[in-house]
Structure formats: C-alpha cells, structure tokens
Amino acid sequence: MKQKYAPFTTTTIKFLKLLLKRKHWFFVVPFFLLWLNFVALKADEQILNATIKMCPKCNELYQNNEKFCGKDGTVLSDTNGKLVCPVCKKEGSGNEKFCVEHGEKLIPIERLSARKDPADLERNMSLAAKYYQEGNTHCDNESYDLALKSYLKAEEVYPDLPGLHYNMGWLYSKLGDVDSAVDHLQKYIILAPDSKDITEVRSYIALLKQAHQKKIEVIEKYKSRDEAMEKALEIQNKKHDTVLIPAGKFSMGTNEARDVSQPEHVVYLDAYEIDRYEITNAQYWEFVKYIEETNDHSKCFKDEPIGKDHKPRYWEDEYYNVPDYPVARVDWYDAYAYAAWKGKRLPTEAEWEKAARGLDVRAFPWGNEWDHTRCNLSGEPMPVGSVESGKSMYGCYDMSGSVFEWCNDWFSSTYYQYSPSINPTGPEKGERKLIRGGSRFSRPFQVRVTERKSERPDLFNMAIGFRCAKDVEVKE
Predict the structure, then answer these.
(1) Which residue ranges does the record assign to the Sulfatase-modifying factor enzyme-like domain (predicted)?
(2) What range does the domain containing 288 cover?
C-alpha cells in the first residue's frame, strides 16, 4: 500500500524545538512558510493522482475511498482520471467539476467518444435501416449468410433497433447458433418491452434452449468425429446406392408458376443414374480427409478459387459431428470436386427434375397434393431419408425440403424458351448456378419440383447441399 504523506517527521520537530529554544525566530518563520508551500504541493499532487470514480447511472463523480453512489447505490466504476467538457472537449484542472467556460458538467474522457452528435445519430439510424431492409430481402431469398452480413452491418452502426434483433434472433436460430439467437431475442425484449409478442418471444427462447439441449445429447453419443464417421460409413456405403432413371421423355417446367419456370415443355433424356440420398456429413468427411492427406486436386474444377481445401464453412461446428445429416455449407466447386472424386458428376437441372417429378406432371415428389408430413420444412436438420413417404416415384429421398441441391447448369431466367429438347445442359456460361428442391427453411411453394432458384457458385449456405449423378454406359 502507498504511504500517506506525513507533514512533520521526528527530525523536523526536533530541529524546530532547537531553533525556538535558542530564540532564532528569523530562521523559524521562513522555514515554516517553506513547509506550508511544500505541503500544498503534495496535496495538489494527491488530488491530481487520485482515482476518480463515477456512477454509471447518474454520472456523479467520487474520490478514491468511495465504492457506491450516494444517490442510487450503484457500484462505482473507475475512470482514467481525466475529465473534459462535453462541449469544448477541454480538460478540467485540479478538482474542477464544471467547465469554467461553458458551465457544463465535466465527464470522463472515455465517455466523450460515446456521446453522439444528433446529426450523426440520424445518419446512423438511416444507414442501419438500409442494411436492415437489405438483410430482410436476403432472408426472403433464403440467402441466409448474406442476410447475416447485412444485419451485422446494421447492428454496428445502430445497435438499438428492436426489429433488427428480432430478425437476427430468428436468423441465428435457423443457422443453428442458439446462443446468439437467444442473445438477440433477449435484446429485443429489452428494447421493446411493451410489444404485443413479448410472451411469444419468451416462449420461443425456451423452445430454442430445449432443442439445443437435445442436440447436445445427440452429439454426446459420439466419442469423436472420426470414430463416428468411420462407423457410419460402413452402414451408408451399403445403403446409399443410386437409382436408374430410364431413357425417355418427360414434361419439364410449368405454366402455373413464375416466369423462370415457364413454359412447360417436353424433354428427352438419355438413361442416367442419380443418388438415392443427399450426400451426408460422413461421406463428405471421407473426401475432406483424402484432400488433407494427399492434397490431390486433380479432379477439381479447373477454374475453382485458389486455395480451396473443400471444407464446408464452419467445418468444426457440431452440426458436422452427426454422420447422417446432409452435408451443407458447401459451394458449387466443393460439390463438383466431390462428385468427380467419386467418379460421378452433378446432375443437370433436367435430370434433377425428372428424378423428382417422374412422368405424370406432379407438383411434389409424392404427388400433387401438399402434405407437410412428407418433407422436412421444420427448420431443424434431420438425417437423410428420414421421410419415407416423401420419396419420388423413382425412389429418391428428400427432393423437397432438407437442403437445396446444386445442379451442374448455369442459370438463365429465359433458358426454357430456347433450350434444346434432347439432353439440355443449360447455358454455356453465366454468373449463378442452379439449386433445386428447397430446404428445411423453405415455404411450401418453394419446394415444388418445378421451382427454380440460383446462387453464386462460391456461396456457402446452411441451406445448400447436393447429390450426385452419373452416365449409364450403353451396352453394344
């Protein structure tokens, strides 16, 4: 502990007594005045070096020995000791509490940066609203990673927008980040305590926590990722086969939906095989392990981005510890590389639609009537092939819901108007690749077998996975 300053030492007192005894007054008076000046300097130094504390609630200032605010009992917080005027930004001197020029109460310098100019605040609110609407648009298009980026920008410039935290809570729950979802939903409750849906939001928070606990229990079944994957692969390699789609014609597209799916037209396809199930975490784990051990990119797309290791985004996330979940957050280049490594390829858009639709112009893989029990639109992941009643006439599972699936084709909104009637493979070039089938986050109309959607080939998204196809060798 620091020692307190003692005005008189024992030696000083003895010396003064000696001077007084001998009546040397002319020495005593100057010495006494010198001592007073010294004491004043020390006192000023103690004031300047004192740790100033402040009440974070009412901003009242206190000295070293105070711990709680005398007004409201709030625990005091330390400052760096420098107090400035919030108007002129000049530092106060000594023990001043108010600016001598403006009369404003001095505040700790670290609080100065937190004070916002009204014009800056208005600009930030406007910018946050722009990013917020941008994120909403991305959500409507199921581009969840892009939506999150926009929402985070909005939060950075203005963090007190209630609707923003509500939507971020919803989005994080869709992406499987329960902790972040709960955090933002609780911020929404704080910022909008009188909102009519507060009870509903609190109930949703409770459900999220319960679902998260169930996921943890599932994950704890597996001692390690490698052990779980190797064991699951033994089963999957026996079960996950391909189905033969015979050569022939089928009706592709529809005249009863968006323009990009029009017109309905007849297409002839040669025979091909397509995976019965979507590619799983276990199957993709085997591919990632191979790339790590060999660094063999000979099967990869020749123009893929530099430095790819083909790991899904957030590969260490607990989602990828469950072997039977469909692999997700893989971009088109990842899907292409995996398929080529397996001696297969990605299906064309026409091949995907025929495998899902069959020959009777149905709206969903199971038929024309909507039935939510036949596909996974729950928002929660399920093992591939979980919904037996939702398979297509050829026996392909999860072609509605679960995850969107990458196709090989470039996207063109007008392609159906000029596409060839025999084995169409899409435009020669483009900016976006086709994805089909909807995801567990989709709405019913988005999982129709004719619904077309596209994304950039380098996009990682929790809602996108894939399955493979391959040519059938013609026997002569």
Answers:
(1) 240-470
(2) 240-471
Q: What is the CATH number of the domain that holds 323?
A: 3.90.1580.10
Q: What is the pLDDT of residues 182-201, one digit of tens each?
A: 999 999 998 898 899 999 99
Domain membership of residue 61 (yes or no) is no
Domain of 162, CATH number, reads 1.25.40.10
Please indicate, yes or no, if residue 461 is contained in any of the structural domains.
yes
Query: What integer pLDDT is reported at residue 79 of this predicted model?
Result: 63
Would 77 be classed as within a structural domain? no
Mean pLDDT of the chain: 84
Question: What pLDDT, in 10s, does the model give residues 127-160?
Answer: 999 999 999 999 988 888 899 999 999 998 898 8
328 residue type, one letter: A
Phi, psi of 198 (to 5 degrees): -60, -45
What is this structure's pTM? 0.63
Residues 185 and 253 in one domain: no
pLDDT digits (tens, 9 = 90+) for 231-252: 999 999 999 999 999 999 999 9
Q: Are residues 171 and 312 in the same domain?
A: no
Q: Write the secondary structure of the chain as one string of H (helix), E (strand) and C (coil).
A: CCCCCCCCCHHHHHHHHHHHHCCCHHHHHHHHHHHHHHHHHHHHHHHHHCCCEECCCCCCEECCCCCECCCCCCECEECCCCEECCCCCCECCCCCCECCCCCCECEEHHHHCCCCCHHHHHHHHHHHHHHHHHHHHHHHCCCHHHHHHHHHHHHHHCCCCHHHHHHHHHHHHHCCCHHHHHHHHHHHHHHCCCCCCHHHHHHHHHHHHHHHHHHHHHHCCCCCHHHHHHHHHHHHHHHCCEEEECCEEEEECCCCCCHHHCCCEEEEECCEEEECCCCEHHHHHHHHHHHHHHCCCCCCCCCCCCCCCCCCCCCCCHHHHCCCCECCCCCHHHHHHHHHHCCCECCCHHHHHHHHHCCCCCCECCECCCCHHHCECCCCCCCCCCCHHHCCCCCCCCCCECCEEEEEEECCCCHHHCCCCECCCCCCCCCCEEEECCCCCCCHHHHCCCCCEEECCCCCCCCEECCCEEECCCCC
Rg (C-alpha) for the chain, rounded Å, is 35
Residues 184 and 315 in one domain: no
Distance CA(141)–CA(134), nearest Å, equals: 11
